[in-house]
Design brief:
Largest sheet: 5 strands, parallel
Bound molecules: adenosine monophosphate, glycine
Strand content: 25-35%
CATH topology of the domain at 2-97: Rossmann fold
Radius of gyration: 21 Å
Structural class: alpha+beta
Helix content: 25-40%
CATH class of the domain at 2-97: Alpha Beta
Number of strands: 24
């Protein structure tokens, strides 16, 4: 089987490795890939979406796996173009990927299908937004478009809201667009991933992402400083409630709205005192949750994705390890405001049992790995208990170093019950 994975980060490195470990040793290709990914997959000689799909057609590719979301919503959409070319694609069509690309689209979908979420109001002007806030703080403001992860402001006080609204409506930092004014919710967050094939789904191992830079969940928001994954992260009762109230109505809603969906759907949930609420949808696996979850997936992931892309959900092809997996992210100096390239990474040959996925690295002229981006590496270890998994992941992370390295030492330590 010939598979192309689309993307270049730590998530795609984990996907490529998991697919490569599937029985039958599929032949892996990646676009655009990274130096590390291209050690397990071959590069696709393309320079954009159209040439990528053309190359897949010409090279008898059996399956395209969308890792990152950007190509799903570019031009005509990766999945749409694959369909035209007759290439099975694991990743949704452009119309369906609006669930991630437009917060207003997602909110209307949630409301239309009665799926629990925070109440929100879409505002076209600064004045409308101020009126919708109505002096109630904390409040949550979300720019309705792609904003490189900077489009959400949780405002505890009026000054923060004024600053964000000024950025959006006066400085137009993200370009033109509306703002959702959303009720502020509280509670722990959990990431649920479902593999959706038309009207069927399979829930993967739940995960938790550590979004803040600092230990104890303080400091600026990041792309994720680590993750923990386990079936036992949430109770069986809570998972059943999430499936019934959130996953099933989402799958039914996609069908009712005529939104084709074959791929992973990520439910970002907040476990509020009134029950789980959807904070966001993403039309892909999470990063760094994917790096934590993939080592727990056993069986034939490649066969599972191929069957799914062709319209058949095959839960019999995979199973999930019942243990725990902990992923510790190592970030470069300056992250998340900036990042520093060129710091040489030491210790990659001393990891023992742990896995390491590369998110932002390159090989330099001397053949050494060095930083190239904000999040640099994800170190992942698993065990039958959370304590053992986190000890193994942190011990492995201790062996890695580069100048300016940033890392949280509490990844995996706090659990929902703590
Ligand atoms: P989003 O990009 O929508 O996932 O939002 C980024 C982060 O903002 C989330 O992970 C939450 O921590 C926080 N957030 C989003 N919506 C809300 C909300 N309604 N109430 C409280 N926090 C929120
Ligand atoms: N872990 C958050 C995300 O993938 O968006």
């Amino acid at each position: 089987m010939k598979i192309v994975v689309v993307g270049k980060g730590g998530r795609e490195h984990a996907l490529v490795r998991a697919l490569a470990e599937s029985p039958g040793s599929p032949e892996l290709f990646c676009f655009p890939g990274s130096d590390a990914i291209l050690e397990s997959a071959r590069p696709v000689p393309a320079d954009g979406l159209e040439s990528l799909v053309e190359w897949m057609g010409a090279n008898a590719i059996d399956l395209c796996v969308a890792g990152e979301e950007s190509y799903l919503v570019k031009g005509e959409g990766l999945a749409n173009l694959c369909e035209k070319a007759g290439i099975p694609c694991w990743g949704p069509h452009l119309q369906s990927a609006q669930l991630e690309a437009s917060k207003e689209f997602a909110k209307k979908f949630l409301e239309r299908h009665g799926i629990p979420t925070a109440k929100a109001c879409a505002c076209a002007t600064l004045e409308e937004a101020v009126e919708a806030i109505g002096g109630r703080y904390p409040t949550v403001l979300k720019f309705d478009g792609l904003a490189a992860g900077k489009g959400v402001a949780v405002c505890m006080v009026e000054e923060e809201a004024v600053e964000f609204l000024d950025e959006v409506f006066v400085k137009q930092r993200f370009g033109p667009g509306r703002v959702l004014v959303e009720d502020f919710l509280t509670g722990p967050e959990v990431s649920i991933f479902a593999a959706i094939v038309d009207d069927q789904y399979l829930v993967f191992t739940p995960a938790r992402d550590y979004k803040r830079l600092g230990e104890g969940d303080v400091g600026p928001n990041t792309g994720g400083m680590g993750a923990v994954a386990s079936r036992r992260l949430v109770s069986a009762e809570l998972l059943a409630e999430i499936e019934q109230d959130i996953v099933q109505p989402t799958v039914a809603g996609l069908i009712r709205d005529g939104l084709p969906y074959r791929g992973f759907l990520y439910f970002g949930l907040m476990l509020t005192p009134d029950g789980p609420r959807v904070i966001e949808y993403n039309c892909r696996f999470g990063d760094p949750e994917c790096q934590a979850v993939m080592p727990l997936v056993k069986g034939d992931l490649a066969g599972f994705c191929l069957a799914g892309a062709k319209g058949e959900l095959r839960p019999d092809l995979i199973s999930f390890d019942e243990g725990w997996s902990v992923c510790v992210v190592l970030a470069s100096a300056g992250y998340p405001e900036s990042s520093r390239n060129g710091d040489v990474i030491r210790g990659l040959d001393q990891l023992g049992e742990a896995r390491v996925y590369h998110a932002g690295t390159r090989r330099n002229a001397a053949g050494d790995w060095e930083t190239q981006g904000g999040r640099v590496l994800a170190v992942v270890a698993g065990a039958s208990t959370r304590q053992a998994a986190l000890a193994a992941a942190h011990t492995a992370a201790d062996r890695l170093a580069f100048d300016g390295m940033q890392r949280r030492r509490d990844i995996g330590i706090c659990n929902f019950e703590d």
